[in-house]
Amino acid sequence: MEQSAGKMASGTTDPAPEAPAKLELRNISKWFGPEGEGVHAVDDCSIEVKKGEFIVVVGPSGCGKSTLMTVGAGLEEPTHGEVLVDGKPAGPPGPTRSVVFQKFALFPSETVEQNIKFGLQMTGVSAAEQEARLAEQLKIMGLEQFRKSYPSELSGGMQQRVAIARALVMQPEILLMDEPFGALDAQTRTILQEEVQRLHREKHYTVLFITHSVEEAVYLGDRVVVMTRRPGRIKRVIELPRDVAWKTGDIELASEHPEFIEFRREIWGLVREEIVSI
Amino acid sequence: MDQSRTLQVAAGLGAVLAWIVIWAWLTRPGGPVPTLYFPAPDDVWAKFVRMWQRPYIGSTLPNHILASLYIVLTGWGLAALVGIPLGIAMAWWKRLKWIVFPTFQLIRPVPPLAWIPLTILWLGIGDSARISVVFIAALVPWLMNSMLAVYSIDRLLLDAAKTLGANDRQILTRVVCRTALPTLVAAARMALGSAWSTLVAAEILAATAGLGYVAVNASQLLDTDVLLVAMFMIGILGIGMTGLIGLTQNWLAPWSVLGARRD
Fold first, then answer.
1. pTM of structure
2. Are residues B125 and B7 in the same domain?
3. Is B238 among the domain residues?
């Protein structure tokens, strides 16, 4: 069952012949500890994210989808396989691939504006440019009144807005999001899901997004990659309609659309198999 | 919040006052405790005033205090200059830890006071002997807690910094050292506590001035009131220095003393 799923996956992720994918994870396997003895987190996963595409990876908890993200960001070396950006080896982590973490990972000693400017300062962006980009992000994420606050003074939702702003301010070619809304309450999550959807529509970010929420995957994804339980393999890749009205509106309305319901049922069925089967 | 704080302070002051009343009652003329062993509060106060103005075994009380503070702050400060960078470096560069830590572990179980005979042999009973002992006493908490401060930083922050384009040096200076500040303030407090308690012992054994020196002389001369003055001063100075360190935390690491606000 799982072996055939792997073949189906590679069939649907063939690159467009004209241009290499923006981000490609090619035959990634990851062992924690010695190969064959340690934990086999990810097994032979290949994912291509084309320019401007929003790919969502969904799977049961502990299936190695976060590992896929850390490997994709360059924070972990894969045991086998390689990570390519524009067809070339991606190398160490850096601002081309911005990451939004589930636990925000804001610097506690820095104010909101210092957090957002952090990457710009590290990469030697001019002071004037820093201020301009900071102002833009504060506005987009609605953080203007919190610019002098420390992360510990903010709610989880606000903290994640800062983390998203900190990633977007780098004008990354690729945005990696690792269950970014997993630690938020339901209302905040809904609002941020809609904002991310809007940002993607307006700015055409290239996104690799990890989640365990099927609704989130259907609402946000151009393509959804379903993973098996550990060791995580690609079980199925599902193309979603892109420029349809229900994807551009509120998630509340989208979730009532027959197409949404159908995709949700299909994807949830695939995920459920992984959770239930032993 | 403010009300319960006021209540807390009032309760604390009340309790201290109660102890003084009990003390006065026990040591009243014809009371159960002979004043030779435990002088009355007013006698101690009178002695305090007298010592503030007139020399006792060579120096006035302010000069004894300054002598003690000079030793403790010098030893503590020097230990900080060595302990903080070394501790952070050991946590950051594993290889350095492999080299330095075993030696340090070997020295660590030796109580600071056990160094006193050796320092007297090497340095006599001058200031440098006591500074060295205080230095050793403060170095251990400085170094250990600086190391722990780095270890306790969430690895996720280092990952985040890397993805934002920071190199190792930038991560060390901007993320690690700054994030570690609140723990370093705690380290300062522990190091000072250790330095202060060692100082008094060092002065008992080898000194020509200082509060510990006053205390041991007073004990030998049966000047119990002087002894109590010295002990109170040791306690009050300890409280004062700890309080000052608490204030520096507000100044150095304001984010660490904020209560979480929820919207």
1. 0.81
2. no
3. yes
A154 has a chain B CB within 8 A of its CB: yes
Asked if A94 reaches chain B (Cβ–Cβ under 8 Å), the answer is: yes
In our burial notation (b when 16+ CB lie closer than 10 A, e otherwise), range B3-33 reads: eeeeeeeeeeeeeeeeeeeebeeebeeeeee
Chain A closest CA to B194's CA: distance in Å? 28
Interface pTM (ipTM) of the complex? 0.84
Q: Say whether both B97 and B80 belong to one domain.
A: yes
- Find the domain containing B117 and state its range: 39-257
Kindly report which listed range (A9-13, B25-29, B135-139, B236-240) carries the lowest average pLDDT score. A9-13
Tens-digit pLDDT profile for residues B100-158: 899 888 888 888 888 888 888 888 878 888 899 999 999 999 999 999 999 999 999 99
pLDDT digits (tens, 9 = 90+) for A197-234: 888 888 888 999 999 889 899 999 999 999 988 888 88
Residues of A in contact with B261 (CB under 8 A): 153-155
Q: Strands, DSSP E only, in chain A?
A: 23-32, 39-49, 54-58, 80-85, 88-89, 97-100, 174-178, 206-211, 223-227, 234-239
A76: nearest CA partner in chain B: B159
pLDDT digits (tens, 9 = 90+) for B220-253: 888 899 999 999 999 999 999 989 998 888 888 8
The CA distances from residue A95 to A42, A124, A166, B241, in Å, are: 25, 12, 10, 45
